[in-house]
Amino acid sequence: MAASIYEQYYRMDWGLPHYSPPLMAAIQDYRAQTTRLLEHQTHVQDIWSQDYQAHHPQ
C-alpha cells in the first residue's frame, strides 16, 4: 500500500508522502532483513562455487 501511495504522490507531483513512524520503522527493518538475506545468499553461492571448482577442475 505504501508503494501505491508513493506512486500516486509522485504522479500528482505532490512531493513525498508523510508516513507514520511505525511504518517507516517497519520499512527500514524490512530493508535491513532483505539486505542481510541477499548477503547470505551471495556468500553461500560463492562457497558452493569454490567447492564445485575444487572438485571439478577444468
Overview features:
single chain; 58 residues; mainly alpha; elongated
How would you sum up this structure, described in words?
There is one protein chain. With 58 residues, this protein is an all-alpha fold. The chain has a domain of 39 residues. Helices cover 79% and strands 0% of the residues. It has two helices and no strands. The mean pLDDT is 82.
Gyration radius (Cα, Å) is: 20 Å
How many DSSP helices? 2
- In whole angstroms, the N-to-C terminal distance is 50 Å
Mean pLDDT: 82
Outline:
The chain is mainly alpha-helical.
Give the topology.
Blueprint: H1 2-12, H2 21-55
